[in-house]
Design goal:
The complex is a heterotrimer of chains A (147), B (362) and C (205). Chain B is an alpha+beta fold and 362 residues long. Chain B contains twelve helices and eight strands. In chain B, α3 runs antiparallel to α4 and α5 packs antiparallel against α9. The longest helix of chain B is centred in the first third of the chain and has 29 residues. In chain C, α2 links the parallel β5 and β6. Chain C has five helices and six strands; from the N terminus they run βαββββαβααα. The chains are: A alpha/beta (147), B alpha+beta (362), C alpha/beta (205).
Chain lengths: 147, 362, 205
């Protein structure tokens, strides 16, 4: 049984988001929708986090930052692209400084659309992410046994 | 004299909801210089006027910033209406102002929660955002969206609010105000909060005027400038409007100004609801902006004065659309306030400026 | 007190003096923006005092003109001047906090001055339609004169019917030409082929 899936800690980073999705991410963890009853805590340290919530698209300046945070996280980790800008660029997909969704920088496990993303969608995404975390964790254990 | 070292702050930081990078030149825990680096949120959306016509661009304008979304759609619509000489019906102006003041209430509650989280008062953060959910419920019931409302269009508004909904809004806001006043009593009288905010990040009146600061950031240094005093739109029908100012010019004063502005906004909403006239909620806009026509407009967003400029070129696409947001004006003031502060106070100062980086960079 | 706005054109050489005068009179700096036009780049400086908002416009600049910075009087302008330099490639001399072109990290230079191929095509299409419309109006005027002359020469009923029908057919053809001029070339070729086939069929019947 994976410990992470009983209480997944999240780290949130805003790529080039308008903030709409960011405040909905925070609202999910506040008493209105109460993500914290699932054990979800918002941490600022990538090394403590299991789930990476990215909002907003990727541009020339922040592609390195997104990759850096992803690299600092420890396996098993899951990436959720929150909001349509993170999935594909959204309304800004043809702007000159937008390279596209977050999958241009890091591998994404779950795409959660919305403009701004609704807290219900985000809770669904986190529940799915926990399932993927379990799978990845089991795969890691198998690999260790094999070696 | 200590050795100077450079500490990078951001772009990813637990207290920052948005990416902002500061290189803090520090000597023995005292910040001597702060060099900002922005550009992480630059999408380049002002160029989209060339591919979206003036009716479609309002959806892009809204998404410049999720917190000030209503303000940007309102400012854009008013500027294009000025450009084309369109007069919006009175009822639409009142509805726009009601939604805009509700937006100010939600923005200040949001800000207060984040500021409390910045100095470690997490339960206050949770209380403010719990109260904010009630305002977001009003948004959802009247417009369908919690954050991005999409309710303003060039020529008026898209939907109406009926009498029973107005009564519900007043009841909800009364409930919010009551609980909020109880929070205010704790917030503004608590010794540990005063220790962390009084005297921190002081900006004098003259410095505020010299650096052309705007918004609550400037009003806390006794600069009595508020665009709502010009009486544009439905604000002209208010019986009496005085901007809230404070003379202390430090973090505590900025917090106080925003806290009282929230209560003032609730009173303004009630006055608008009492005075709203009956009538149409929109007017059909035909034709295109004239070639070479220019218009500019200002609006009081929760963070300060926002300037809009539009130029037409005879087609249905605008030649240029520009939004200058309050935080870009206040960046110089923020850098100035950070000089000479303690490293531990950097969070507090940045958050009392209330930066909205996605607005600044568009 | 209501808001008053106005736009004043100003020469680049007079800019520094004007800004110094405004600072001395107590005007507050509002913003600086740039507009990319066919005739060059316009810079608009906005100032506000009490309830008057004045915009000073410097028109028709290129990237070889050197604009003096106003950060000596108004330090907060450094944000806008760096932005205008990065996005429009305007040279501004003497910015107090100068990022040297690295304010925003972009992967193309001066993106706001870039005109994409689609926009060029759209502009050309609009120009073609305007030209075709002009030609049609000129032709109508000429046909009107010619029709009057024909009437006199050939006798009333026949002449009227013939020249009337001719004028009508010519009109329709002109309308079609105007439409085709504005269309995609492939589509236009298809329409022409369809029209020819129809004409052949009509002749055959």
């Amino acid at each position: 049984m994976a410990f992470a899936s009983k209480s997944p800690w999240v780290i949130h980073y805003d790529g080039s988001s308008c903030n709409g999705c960011d405040i909905e991410v925070l609202a999910t963890l506040c008493p209105g929708f109460d993500g914290e009853r699932f054990g979800v805590i918002n941490t600022g340290n990538p090394k403590h986090a299991d789930i990476f919530l990215v909002t907003g698209s990727v541009n020339e300046q922040n592609i390195d930052v997104v990759r850096e945070i992803y690299d600092q996280m420890i396996e098993p980790k899951v990436v959720i692209a929150c909001g349509i800008c993170a999935c594909s660029g959204g309304v800004f997909h043809d702007c000159y400084n937008v390279m596209g969704g977050v999958d241009k920088a890091i591998p994404v496990d779950i795409y959660a659309p919305g403009c701004a993303i609704r807290p219900e969608t985000l809770i669904d995404a986190i529940v799915q992410a926990v399932g993927i975390l379990d799978e990845k964790s089991a795969a890691m254990r198998e690999a260790k046994k094999g070696a | 004299m200590g050795k100077a070292s450079v500490i990078p702050f951001g772009p990813q930081h637990p207290v920052l909801p948005e990416p902002l990078h500061l290189d803090l030149v520090v000597e023995d825990e005292v910040v001597i210089e702060a060099v900002p680096q922005i550009g992480f949120v630059h999408r380049g959306l002002e160029k989209l006027v060339e591919t979206r016509d003036y009716n479609q661009f309002i959806y892009v304008a809204e998404r410049i910033c999720g917190i000030c979304a209503m303000g940007h759609s309102l400012g854009y619509a008013e500027t294009v209406e000025r450009l084309m000489g369109v007069e919006v019906p009175k009822r639409a102006e009142y509805l726009r102002c009601i939604w805009h003041e509700l937006s100010r209430v939600h923005s200040h509650l949001l800000w207060l929660g984040l500021a409390a989280d910045a100095f470690g008062f997490e339960s206050l953060f949770m209380h403010c955002w719990r109260l904010r959910e009630r305002v977001l419920d009003i948004f959802e019931k009247t417009t369908g969206g919690r954050v991005i409302l999409s309710v303003v269009k060039v020529g008026g508004v898209v939907r109406d609010i009926d009498r029973s909904m107005f009564d519900e809004i007043i009841t909800t806001l009364d409930g919010v105000a009551e609980e909020y006043k109880a929070i205010l009593k704790t917030l503004l009288n608590d010794t540990s909060i005063k220790n962390r905010t009084v005297g921190v990040g002081y900006i004098s009146h003259d410095e505020a005027v010299n650096l052309s600061m705007v918004g609550p950031f400037a009003r806390a240094s006794a600069v009595p400038y508020d665009v709502r005093s010009f009486g544009l739109g439905a604000y002209g029908d208010l019986s009496d409007f005085q901007p809230i100012t404070d003379t202390a010019g430090d973090c505590y004063a900025r917090m106080k100004v925003r806290c009282y502005e929230l209560l003032q906004s609730i009173d303004l909403i009630k006055e608008f609801i009492a005075k709203i006239p009956d009538g149409d909620i929109d007017v059909t806009v035909k034709g295109n902006p004239a070639d070479g026509a220019e218009a500019c407009n200002v609006l009081e967003q929760p963070r300060g004065e926002c300037y809009y400029y539009a130029r037409g070129n005879g087609t249905k696409n605008l030649a240029r659309m520009r939004m200058r947001t309050p935080t870009s004006q206040n960046l110089a003031g923020m850098v100035h306030a950070l000089k000479g502060c303690d490293l531990a106070d950097v969070n507090m100062i940045i958050l009392t400026v209330d930066p909205c980086i996605s607005c600044t960079e568009r | 007190m209501a808001l008053e706005t106005c736009f004043n054109p100003i020469e680049l050489s007079a800019l520094s003096e004007k800004v110094k005068a405004r600072k001395a009179e107590g005007w507050r700096f509002v913003q600086l923006l740039a507009v990319n036009t066919d005739e060059g780049i316009d810079l608009i400086y906005s100032f506000m005092k009490d309830n008057v908002l004045e915009n000073d416009e410097v028109k028709g600049l290129t990237n070889t003109d050197i604009v003096p910075s106003i950060t000596d009087e108004y330090l907060e302008a450094f944000v806008f001047e760096n932005e205008v330099h990065d996005l429009f490639d305007i040279q501004i001399k003497g910015i107090a906090i100068d990022f040297g072109g690295h304010f925003y990290k972009l992967h193309e230079k001066a993106p706001m001055t870039v005109i994409s191929p689609e926009q060029k095509a759209a502009k050309e299409k609009a120009a073609k339609i305007a030209a075709a419309k002009k030609a049609k109006e000129a032709k109508e005027k000429a046909a009107g004169d010619a029709g009057a002359a024909d009437e006199g020469a050939h006798g009333k009923a026949d002449a009227q019917g013939e020249s009337g029908a001719k004028a009508e057919a010519e009109d329709k053809q002109d309308d079609l030409e105007a439409k085709l001029a504005g269309m995609d070339p492939e589509k236009a070729a298809k329409v022409r082929a369809a029209m020819e086939a129809r004409a052949k069929k009509a002749k055959g019947e």
